[in-house]
Amino acid sequence: MINKDVLKEVMLSQRNFLDKLLVGIKRENEIKIRDSFATIITGIRRAGKSTILNQILKKTKVGYYLNLEDPRLDGFELTDFNKTEILMKEIYGNGGTYFFDEIQNVEKWEKFIRYLVDKKEKVVITGSNASLLSRDLGAKLTGRYLQTEIFPFSFAEFLKIKKMSVSVNSFEKYLFMGGFPEYLKQNNPAILQELLSNIIMCEFFCCSL
Question: pTM for this structure?
Protein backbone atom coordinates (compact mmCIF):
# COMPACT_ATOMS: atom_id res chain seq x y z
CA MET A 1 0.00 0.00 0.00
CA ILE A 2 1.30 3.46 -0.95
CA ASN A 3 0.95 6.55 1.24
CA LYS A 4 -1.21 9.22 -0.42
CA ASP A 5 1.43 11.94 -0.03
CA VAL A 6 4.10 9.69 -1.56
CA LEU A 7 1.78 8.83 -4.41
CA LYS A 8 1.12 12.51 -5.11
CA GLU A 9 4.82 13.33 -5.06
CA VAL A 10 5.60 10.49 -7.48
CA MET A 11 2.77 11.50 -9.79
CA LEU A 12 3.93 15.12 -9.97
CA SER A 13 7.60 14.25 -10.44
CA GLN A 14 6.80 11.75 -13.21
CA ARG A 15 4.72 14.32 -15.06
CA ASN A 16 7.42 16.96 -14.64
CA PHE A 17 9.95 14.51 -16.10
CA LEU A 18 7.68 13.74 -19.06
CA ASP A 19 7.10 17.42 -19.80
CA LYS A 20 10.86 17.87 -20.28
CA LEU A 21 11.27 14.91 -22.62
CA LEU A 22 11.39 15.31 -26.38
CA VAL A 23 8.50 13.57 -28.11
CA GLY A 24 10.80 11.76 -30.54
CA ILE A 25 9.93 10.93 -34.13
CA LYS A 26 6.32 10.28 -35.06
CA ARG A 27 5.71 6.55 -35.34
CA GLU A 28 3.76 4.94 -38.16
CA ASN A 29 1.23 3.40 -35.77
CA GLU A 30 -1.98 5.44 -35.72
CA ILE A 31 -3.55 4.89 -32.29
CA LYS A 32 -7.07 6.14 -31.67
CA ILE A 33 -8.45 6.36 -28.14
CA ARG A 34 -12.09 5.45 -27.65
CA ASP A 35 -14.27 5.49 -24.58
CA SER A 36 -15.81 2.16 -23.51
CA PHE A 37 -12.52 0.48 -24.50
CA ALA A 38 -9.06 0.33 -22.95
CA THR A 39 -6.37 1.05 -25.51
CA ILE A 40 -3.60 -1.47 -24.84
CA ILE A 41 -0.15 -0.79 -26.29
CA THR A 42 2.02 -3.90 -26.21
CA GLY A 43 5.31 -4.84 -27.79
CA ILE A 44 8.78 -6.18 -27.25
CA ARG A 45 10.86 -4.43 -24.59
CA ARG A 46 12.52 -1.11 -25.58
CA ALA A 47 10.56 -0.87 -28.84
CA GLY A 48 9.22 2.56 -27.92
CA LYS A 49 5.91 1.91 -26.16
CA SER A 50 6.46 4.53 -23.46
CA THR A 51 7.53 7.12 -26.04
CA ILE A 52 4.34 6.56 -28.02
CA LEU A 53 2.31 6.85 -24.84
CA ASN A 54 4.07 10.16 -24.10
CA GLN A 55 3.33 11.42 -27.62
CA ILE A 56 -0.37 10.66 -27.19
CA LEU A 57 -0.39 12.21 -23.70
CA LYS A 58 1.06 15.49 -24.97
CA LYS A 59 -1.74 15.75 -27.53
CA THR A 60 -4.39 15.19 -24.86
CA LYS A 61 -6.13 18.20 -23.31
CA VAL A 62 -6.30 16.65 -19.84
CA GLY A 63 -4.14 13.59 -19.17
CA TYR A 64 -3.66 11.51 -16.03
CA TYR A 65 -0.34 9.64 -16.03
CA LEU A 66 1.31 7.04 -13.79
CA ASN A 67 4.35 4.86 -14.50
CA LEU A 68 3.99 1.76 -12.35
CA GLU A 69 7.57 0.65 -12.91
CA ASP A 70 8.78 3.48 -10.66
CA PRO A 71 10.67 1.93 -7.68
CA ARG A 72 9.03 4.47 -5.38
CA LEU A 73 5.75 2.67 -6.07
CA ASP A 74 7.05 -0.68 -4.87
CA GLY A 75 4.18 -2.28 -2.96
CA PHE A 76 1.46 -0.59 -5.06
CA GLU A 77 -1.74 -2.61 -4.65
CA LEU A 78 -5.11 -2.78 -6.36
CA THR A 79 -6.70 -0.55 -3.69
CA ASP A 80 -4.11 2.15 -4.38
CA PHE A 81 -5.78 2.79 -7.72
CA ASN A 82 -8.69 4.38 -5.84
CA LYS A 83 -6.33 6.94 -4.27
CA THR A 84 -4.70 7.43 -7.65
CA GLU A 85 -8.01 8.27 -9.33
CA ILE A 86 -8.90 10.80 -6.63
CA LEU A 87 -5.47 12.47 -6.75
CA MET A 88 -5.44 12.68 -10.53
CA LYS A 89 -8.72 14.58 -10.53
CA GLU A 90 -7.62 16.81 -7.66
CA ILE A 91 -4.43 17.79 -9.50
CA TYR A 92 -5.58 18.01 -13.12
CA GLY A 93 -9.36 18.34 -12.96
CA ASN A 94 -12.14 16.13 -14.32
CA GLY A 95 -12.60 14.67 -17.77
CA GLY A 96 -9.07 13.42 -18.37
CA THR A 97 -7.69 10.41 -20.21
CA TYR A 98 -5.95 7.82 -18.02
CA PHE A 99 -2.43 6.71 -18.99
CA PHE A 100 -0.81 3.80 -17.14
CA ASP A 101 2.72 2.75 -18.12
CA GLU A 102 3.84 -0.85 -17.38
CA ILE A 103 0.60 -1.63 -15.58
CA GLN A 104 1.36 -5.36 -15.41
CA ASN A 105 3.49 -4.66 -12.32
CA VAL A 106 0.29 -4.44 -10.25
CA GLU A 107 -1.55 -7.66 -9.45
CA LYS A 108 -5.22 -7.70 -10.53
CA TRP A 109 -4.80 -4.39 -12.40
CA GLU A 110 -7.51 -5.44 -14.84
CA LYS A 111 -10.22 -4.98 -12.19
CA PHE A 112 -9.55 -1.25 -11.98
CA ILE A 113 -9.32 -0.92 -15.76
CA ARG A 114 -12.68 -2.70 -16.12
CA TYR A 115 -14.13 -0.24 -13.60
CA LEU A 116 -12.88 2.75 -15.62
CA VAL A 117 -13.98 1.35 -18.96
CA ASP A 118 -17.45 0.54 -17.64
CA LYS A 119 -17.72 4.23 -16.65
CA LYS A 120 -16.85 5.06 -20.30
CA GLU A 121 -13.54 6.64 -19.34
CA LYS A 122 -10.71 6.83 -21.88
CA VAL A 123 -7.81 4.60 -20.86
CA VAL A 124 -4.39 3.92 -22.42
CA ILE A 125 -2.07 1.31 -20.91
CA THR A 126 1.28 -0.21 -21.87
CA GLY A 127 2.96 -3.46 -20.97
CA SER A 128 5.29 -6.12 -22.25
CA ASN A 129 4.04 -8.86 -24.57
CA ALA A 130 4.72 -11.62 -22.09
CA SER A 131 2.33 -10.14 -19.53
CA LEU A 132 -0.38 -8.52 -21.63
CA LEU A 133 -0.58 -11.19 -24.31
CA SER A 134 -1.38 -13.87 -21.74
CA ARG A 135 -4.06 -16.43 -22.48
CA ASP A 136 -6.54 -15.04 -19.98
CA LEU A 137 -6.34 -11.36 -20.97
CA GLY A 138 -9.47 -11.80 -23.07
CA ALA A 139 -11.30 -13.26 -20.10
CA LYS A 140 -10.16 -10.42 -17.81
CA LEU A 141 -11.19 -7.62 -20.18
CA THR A 142 -13.74 -9.32 -22.41
CA GLY A 143 -14.95 -6.86 -25.05
CA ARG A 144 -13.36 -3.95 -23.22
CA TYR A 145 -10.02 -3.46 -24.98
CA LEU A 146 -8.43 -2.71 -28.33
CA GLN A 147 -4.82 -3.74 -28.71
CA THR A 148 -1.95 -2.31 -30.78
CA GLU A 149 1.42 -4.05 -30.93
CA ILE A 150 4.49 -1.85 -31.28
CA PHE A 151 7.60 -3.07 -33.08
CA PRO A 152 11.11 -1.56 -33.31
CA PHE A 153 11.60 1.11 -36.00
CA SER A 154 10.63 0.29 -39.56
CA PHE A 155 13.01 1.19 -42.38
CA ALA A 156 11.16 4.48 -42.94
CA GLU A 157 11.43 5.35 -39.24
CA PHE A 158 15.10 4.30 -39.26
CA LEU A 159 15.75 6.79 -42.06
CA LYS A 160 14.15 9.57 -40.04
CA ILE A 161 16.16 9.01 -36.88
CA LYS A 162 19.44 8.52 -38.80
CA LYS A 163 18.61 11.39 -41.19
CA MET A 164 19.37 9.27 -44.23
CA SER A 165 17.71 8.90 -47.62
CA VAL A 166 16.55 5.72 -49.32
CA SER A 167 19.46 3.83 -50.86
CA VAL A 168 21.02 0.40 -50.98
CA ASN A 169 23.58 1.60 -48.44
CA SER A 170 20.98 2.85 -45.95
CA PHE A 171 18.96 -0.37 -46.30
CA GLU A 172 22.06 -2.45 -45.63
CA LYS A 173 22.74 -0.36 -42.53
CA TYR A 174 19.15 -0.94 -41.38
CA LEU A 175 19.49 -4.71 -41.86
CA PHE A 176 22.72 -4.66 -39.88
CA MET A 177 21.68 -2.27 -37.07
CA GLY A 178 18.00 -3.13 -36.67
CA GLY A 179 15.38 -0.79 -35.29
CA PHE A 180 15.68 -0.60 -31.52
CA PRO A 181 15.48 3.16 -30.78
CA GLU A 182 17.97 3.38 -27.91
CA TYR A 183 20.64 1.44 -29.78
CA LEU A 184 20.22 3.65 -32.86
CA LYS A 185 20.70 6.74 -30.69
CA GLN A 186 23.80 5.54 -28.86
CA ASN A 187 25.26 2.91 -31.23
CA ASN A 188 26.48 0.86 -28.28
CA PRO A 189 26.50 -2.93 -28.96
CA ALA A 190 26.17 -3.61 -25.22
CA ILE A 191 22.61 -2.30 -25.43
CA LEU A 192 21.65 -5.00 -27.92
CA GLN A 193 23.37 -7.69 -25.88
CA GLU A 194 21.51 -6.64 -22.75
CA LEU A 195 18.22 -6.51 -24.64
CA LEU A 196 18.75 -9.99 -26.03
CA SER A 197 19.46 -11.37 -22.58
CA ASN A 198 16.53 -9.57 -20.91
CA ILE A 199 13.99 -10.44 -23.59
CA ILE A 200 14.86 -14.13 -23.71
CA MET A 201 14.93 -14.46 -19.93
CA CYS A 202 11.67 -12.56 -19.48
CA GLU A 203 9.82 -14.52 -22.16
CA PHE A 204 11.09 -17.83 -20.77
CA PHE A 205 10.15 -17.17 -17.14
CA CYS A 206 6.84 -15.43 -17.92
CA CYS A 207 5.72 -18.24 -20.23
CA SER A 208 6.76 -20.80 -17.61
CA LEU A 209 4.49 -19.29 -14.93
Answer: 0.80
